[in-house]
Design brief:
The complex is a heterotrimer of chains A (102), B (388) and C (163). Chain A is mainly α. Chain A has helices at 4-24, 28-52, 59-89. Chain A is elongated. Chain B contains 14 helices and no strands. With 388 residues, chain B is mostly helical. Chain B is globular. Chain B has one domain (94-387). Chain B has helices at 2-5, 7-20, 25-62, 78-87, 99-115, 134-155, 159-190, 195-201, 208-211, 213-226, 252-276, 290-313, 319-345, 351-387. In chain B, helix 7 packs parallel to helix 13. Chain C is mostly helical and 163 residues long. The chains are: A mainly alpha (102), B mainly alpha (388), C mainly alpha (163). The B-C interface holds B 26, 30, 98, 100-101, 131-133, 136-137, 139-141, 143-144, 146-147, 150-151, 154, 162, 166, 169, 173, 176, 193 and C 2, 26, 28-29, 32, 35, 51-52, 55-56, 58-59, 62-64, 66-67, 70-71, 74, 79, 126.
């Protein structure tokens, strides 16, 4: 039997890697990829707790499925925004989007 | 007679028994799984050899010519000869191509095609792994194939390959939706996502393809489009867009794509048989389960012959007609079918009446759909004649 | 024993792929490594006996989201960018911060005695999931579908070509 903490450690690592990607990459699509990694880590946590904390209740998996749905919707809108951005400014560098800067 | 009646399962049990003689139980399970996987792989490649021969002969006869008849008796070894020719060709990588992506794409394509075979029930108890999410697994592996096409298009460093890759992925994603919805109708009636469960629910002659012809037709058309065959082969035919996403592939890598396409076709016909025509069920199958494999082979051959017939006779469809057909005809039709079956299956009526109602609803759906398509085509023709 | 060995292999592969997503210069390769890490997470779901979720993960994440990301990469020509630095100016400080966060999380997760239940997942899990979605959790279900329709319409409107 695999101990629960192993799964949680893997999820924590995945979350930290995703967080690093979001905070440090300059390409907008790379930032989006980091966000997807973080959402995956959260899902992994949810399912691990579902399995080890009472698998007769399906709440954990329901929550994970809703998170996957929201991630899909957010990826679609995010990528549409990135494509529109590229069309307008010919760049996908997040540091070049500074027209609102004071 | 007793041993032969359940031949394949008895052979498997004998193999496991021989292994347990000298291995601990976990090693027996491991070796058994590896052996089954190798068997499925070999079976896949052999089946594809036979299937390509059948297709070339059938299309040749439709076109009033003989087809391959030199290599081996009746041309049976032609595919072996072709495979050897492709093997000894020079392995070219275009300059500027992304080497890893370019070389990985055909492998991924074949991977997706072969993984599908793990959940196809070839007979009673003869399935790679009876996942309790078998039907959904098939959809997931099918969607993996579109990733391989994108990799091929991008990795070739060729703008025609890229455009071809875009269009193929658009086609694959559009036709995946009616295919999934059509596959859900038998799942609804069977009450389970497991492939053996769907086969078992069709026992007693209650084949879902006969009950729900609309679902079967939608699945058939979507499967033809999913595998990229005629009449939906706009994207990889040699005369269109210079062969689409596999322009830059030659030799063994092209052979992998070719193999993946035929394997996909075979697997989707096998899935159609399982979901809609009772899989390996047939007369006397409970007394001699080995007959199940024979029935399965016959049914898959019939459906594969249908696919070949489409390819031999129908002209190609344009990309905008293709997409319009998927989104405006197939998706609403599949949704309506799912809705009707879901409502009718829950009515507290005796079984026979239920089945007749579902059949009537499906026939009504087909006639309505055809009527609407016919009317819209007539209106379009009238408008075009009125203009010019 | 075998399961633990498989778990270690799969999680190393997943974490390695995720690390390569963040560190690779070629954006297309990043997307492929992302798809590989999605696969790894799906394998971890299978180890957790959540097969339905594993297949849904492959179907939606690899089949749809990864494909969408690759499309966006191709449409924005972000594939080859030489001479542009990969990370922004604060990459060292952020690395320290994220490492600290990771350390705190891991210490926390290993020190807490989680209440572990020995029950097994029910045999009719998928049926129960379906009933949960139209029973107690019907509101999140409907809200998620409304969200998807809104996102669909919004994405098409935003990415449309303005004539």
């Amino acid at each position: 039997m695999i101990p629960l903490s192993w799964f949680l450690i893997v999820a924590a690592f995945l979350f930290c890697i995703g967080l690093y990607g979001v905070l440090v990459r300059r390409n907008a699509i790379a930032v989006l990829m980091g966000i997807e990694l973080m959402l995956n880590a959260v899902n992994l946590n949810l399912v691990a707790f579902w399995r080890y904390g009472g698998p007769t209740e399906v709440t954990g998996q329901v929550f994970a499925i809703i998170v996957i749905t929201v991630a899909a919707a957010e990826a679609a809108v995010g990528l549409a925004l990135i494509i529109a951005m590229y069309r307008n400014r010919q760049t996908v560098n997040v540091e070049d989007l500074d027209t609102l800067k004071g | 007679m007793g041993f032969v009646a359940d031949l394949f399962r008895n052979l498997g049990a004998a193999f496991v028994g021989w292994l347990s003689g000298f291995l601990p139980p976990w090693a027996v399970a491991l070796v058994n799984d590896v052996a089954v996987a190798l068997l499925l792989l070999t079976l896949a490649l052999l089946i594809v050899l036979y299937v390509i021969w059948f297709e070339r002969k059938a299309i040749a006869r439709v076109q009033d010519r003989l087809g391959p008849n030199r290599a081996g008796p009746a041309g049976l070894l032609q595919n072996l000869a072709d495979a050897m020719k492709l093997l000894i060709k020079e392995s070219i990588t275009p300059s500027g191509a992304d080497r890893w992506v370019y070389n990985l794409a055909p492998i991924l394509s074949v991977f997706a095609a072969i993984m599908l075979l793990a959940v196809v029930p070839f007979g009673a108890g003869l399935i790679g792994e009876d996942l309790n999410v078998g039907v959904l697994y098939i959809v997931a592996m099918g969607s993996l194939g579109s990733m391989a096409v994108l990799m091929a298009g991008w990795g070739s460093n060729n703008k025609y390959a890229l455009l071809g890759g875009f269009r193929v992925v658009a086609q694959l994603l559009s036709y995946e939706i009616p295919m999934v919805l059509a596959m859900l109708s038998p799942v609804l009636l069977a009450g389970t996502l497991s492939m053996q469960g769907v086969v078992a629910a069709q026992a007693g002659g209650r084949w879902f393809g006969v009950l729900m012809p609309a679902a079967f037709l939608i699945y058939l058309v979507s499967a033809v489009a999913e595998t990229g065959r005629s009449p939906f082969d706009l994207l990889e035919a040699e005369s269109e867009l210079v062969a689409g996403f596999h322009i830059e592939y030659s030799g063994m890598k092209f052979a992998w794509f070719y193999l993946a396409e035929f394997m996909n076709t075979f697997t989707l016909s096998a899935v159609a048989t399982t979901l809609f025509f009772g899989g390996w069920l047939g007369p006397f199958v409970d007394r001699a389960p080995v007959l199940g494999v024979v029935y399965f082979a016959i049914k898959v051959s019939i459906i594969y012959a249908l696919f070949t017939w489409f390819r031999a006779t129908l002209p190609r469809v344009r990309i905008d007609q293709l997409m319009a057909f998927a989104w405006k005809v197939l998706v609403p039709g599949a949704l309506a079918n799912l809705l009707l079956v879901a409502v009718l299956a829950k009515l507290p009526l005796p079984d026979l009446l239920n089945s007749l109602l579902i059949l009537a609803a499906n026939v009504a759906l087909i006639l309505t759909g055809l009527g609407m398509i016919g009317r819209s085509l007539r209106l379009q023709t009238q408008r075009r004649l009125a203009q010019g | 024993m075998l399961l633990q060995a498989i778990f270690i292999l799969v999680s190393l592969a997943t974490l390695g792929a995720a690390l390569l997503v963040v560190l690779t210069r070629n954006l297309f390769h990043s997307a492929l490594f992302l798809a590989a890490s999605f696969f790894g997470v799906a394998a971890l779901y299978v180890l957790l006996e959540a097969e339905f979720l594993a297949v849904v993960q492959v179907l939606i994440y690899v089949g749809a989201i990864a494909t969408l990301i690759v499309f966006a990469i191709m449409l924005s020509r972000g594939g080859v960018q030489r001479g542009v630095p990969l990370f922004n100016a604060e990459w060292a400080i952020v690395a320290v911060g994220v490492a600290l966060l990771g350390g705190v999380l891991i210490v926390l997760l290993t020190q807490v005695a989680w209440p572990v239940s020995q029950a097994a997942p029910p045999a009719d899990l998928i049926a129960r999931l379906g009933q949960a979605f139209v029973g107690p959790y019907v509101i999140p279900f409907e809200v998620a579908s409304a969200l998807l329709v809104t996102a669909l319409i919004g994405a098409i409107l935003i990415a449309r070509e303005r004539e």
